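question for whoever is on the cluster today: can someone run the full assembly for these? two chains, 1014 residues total. i dont have access anymore since they changed the login thing
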Amino acid sequence: MMLSLSTVGRRATLWSVRTSRPFSHLNTVTTEDLAYFSKVLPPSNILSTLPPICTSHDDMVPYNVDWMGKYHGKANTILRPRTTHEVSEIVKHCASRQIGIVPQGGNTGLVGGSISLDKELVLNLGAMSRVRSFDPVSGILVADAGCILQSLSDHIAPHNHIMPLDLGAKGSCQIGGNISTNAGGLRLLRYGSLHGNVLGLEVVLPDGTILDQLSTLRKDNTGYDLKQLFIGSEGTLGIVTGVSILTPPAPQATNNVFLALPHFDNVLPLYQVVKRQLGEIMSAFEYMDRTAYDMALSHGLGPVLDAKEVGDSRCFVLIETSGSNEEHDLDKLNTLLESLMTADEPLILTGTLSQSPGQFESLWAVREGLTECVQKEGKPYKYDVSVPLADFQKVVDTVLERMVSMGLHGDHAVSKVMGYGHIGDGNLHLNVIAKRGYSSEIESALEPFIYELVASRKGSVSAEHGIGSMKTHALHYSKDSVNIEWMRKIKRVFDPLDIMNPGKVLS
Amino acid sequence: MMLSLSTVGRRATLWSVRTSRPFSHLNTVTTEDLAYFSKVLPPSNILSTLPPICTSHDDMVPYNVDWMGKYHGKANTILRPRTTHEVSEIVKHCASRQIGIVPQGGNTGLVGGSISLDKELVLNLGAMSRVRSFDPVSGILVADAGCILQSLSDHIAPHNHIMPLDLGAKGSCQIGGNISTNAGGLRLLRYGSLHGNVLGLEVVLPDGTILDQLSTLRKDNTGYDLKQLFIGSEGTLGIVTGVSILTPPAPQATNNVFLALPHFDNVLPLYQVVKRQLGEIMSAFEYMDRTAYDMALSHGLGPVLDAKEVGDSRCFVLIETSGSNEEHDLDKLNTLLESLMTADEPLILTGTLSQSPGQFESLWAVREGLTECVQKEGKPYKYDVSVPLADFQKVVDTVLERMVSMGLHGDHAVSKVMGYGHIGDGNLHLNVIAKRGYSSEIESALEPFIYELVASRKGSVSAEHGIGSMKTHALHYSKDSVNIEWMRKIKRVFDPLDIMNPGKVLS
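^ ran it for u. tokens below:
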């Protein structure tokens, strides 16, 4: 995902503010601190530009620059502890010295949450990558926070279990980071959110205390469920070091269909029919509008449907099923398609059911390829929002109308406004493509207009990606002042010195 | 569920402590307070023994005594607000006057969480029973906290949706109470916990502030997920007044099977086979040991299996499926049974598949009738614990062995020790029947032995029922001092005056 200029602009502003007013309450790592850390960690687990370590700039880059190359941190020291105890020792020292700490997982976030803003120490969890236990009967996995999502998937695959979440970044992202950012991803519709699937956490608090809530119980009503606070708080309340998570059995069969609909009015009725008919096997219900579909085709994806049959369809839907019996699932899908095709007032114009693993992949490719196509089309302004299902396309149309009415629609400015996303989750990816590059004119036409539009529908300005340092200015569009005040109170209780990921979530 | 004498004993002790040391920091409702409340609420929504209201003792009973008749409160005033604004006004007044408040839903809890301990005001949510909205497309229901669970089920049934939780108390319990106690119930295995299904809450905080987190979004990563703190905190952090909850589509078909296994060693392998073969349609996997099964039969339930085929089976399992296609589900169940029956080393001795709604009910009746049978057998000591699946029967056997070794096993003391519960959730109901009634000898043989046993397996001493006022002394068996200390800190942030359900959860 690219950063929109608007955000670059805002960030630049933030930076200048920060340069004139850095974290005055925090200290920077000195050679004395480094000497202390060297007693806790072996040299291989310390990177620092300070003597005697003197790590090269290049070796610091993977920790100081995010994967998109968008956020550039200034940490002079990176620590890679191997145990919870080591994390605790480091944090205790930082608390006593009032040194800021940025907890860092795979550094695959999209909002600058894992990059230092002002020379805070980076505490990277990558060296904590041990699976602590897996119980194939209950499906409960306990692992270090630094375990990479894909490696956990690989670990449990022989037992016919899967992780309850799946992300594009699975080869790099860490489970601790997934939890700290409340990652959603592709399996949320089926398996629910991490607030339901995480059974326990081990967290090092900002004073170095180890809060052990690493339960492997599905049911436990003994007092406040404190671990929930660390899910999605982006490392601002403490450092997740261990995770207990419920993993579901792997489905035995997966299938998908791709459908064309005349207009958005039919999408929600279709969603209802499909939910009822496919029931427990529906695992994805993905949406894209005509603009997105045509763009995919123009970039060589598909076609997955006959152009004549598609006609002037305005909307497309990809439905995936995951079940325990291929024959049953295909039977359900065929029955569904037949009833859709033969209805008196059909909701769909045409559709196709994948007949092979290859076809399954190519149907998905149209949906999954959209992000890449968007990048090729121009400079995208991307918004990751949640809105009520009924407003899904209306948000896109409203933005398009605004571009048209402001004379900004066309190859000279905004060539395309499109929407796609997860209907099942209410998560819309709104993409506005600036054909000739970002401009302040487009930017100011889009923001805060879109945030206000989303807020007017009681939506979320960040459905999945979080707040990080990028969206602190936009938090108030989705959370009122009472909520933000209470977030600040919670932050102060856990982190009165404001050393834990300072400047993130709450600016 | 009956109260064990042990707990009565402990409560009596607590009471005497409380009588000598009541809530000295709290004030009791006076006629002046009543005059204020009369400005906020109509007379019909105020009950008070104070003049000029002078409600009779009998009319106060439903609010001052829990449904089991176990906990007797001393509130002189009960308020039944109709709106969130009214709740807020009442709480503001109580905060200014430092009057304790007991939030009360259907009063169906099992641990005395909704009864006043020392003349605190009871704030009953029953008059807030409006469904605010239901979206049949997304399945998202928004309702007042005082809505009765069954009435919500009835409300969404015509749209083919069900509530994600189901409890024995559904005809009386309120959704706000369900959430405040993090109710589990019969559908947890299939639909997960309330931490995943609750999308938003509206809460009146102990200072009267309305915290509006009544989101209808499935995905929202904008800051801390504060609402999670109110799920399961038993009204000690604030009063839940509104709820947004995700409701799943109603299954089109339900079926069940009842199986006999030679010994517990086969239960977990069976659970794995069933999980794999039934996959997404498995909605319950209930367990009972031989003692429980025989007891059920002796009370006229069943028999559901042929006695000869049952032989000396030690364990029994009830499996339920819920799916969208009856034919497919029966096919899966038949295939499962066939493979179980014809295996070279069968895991089961015999089993039966219900062939009609009547048979479906009678299979369930054996499991669901256990609670009533237990009551008829004598005075039961009941424990609601979570333990790792592998330890399920071991906990029961260990307790039985202890009774035997202490000479307490037999009709003169403990006639039966049995276990049943939800294998899928790891939730064991351990029942110890004192044939001739409770005795301090039995009690001291059981406690703290059982709590320590559960703690030694990292289990939970309260899987579902919560802590309330009954188990505050046992909290430390499942939560260490760091956790409890942090619970206290959270309590102090939200409720520095300690007016909100004082003496509950944290004593």
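summary bc i know u wont read the tokens: Chain B has 20 helices and 16 strands. Chain B has four domains: 5-124, 131-246, 253-370, 378-463.
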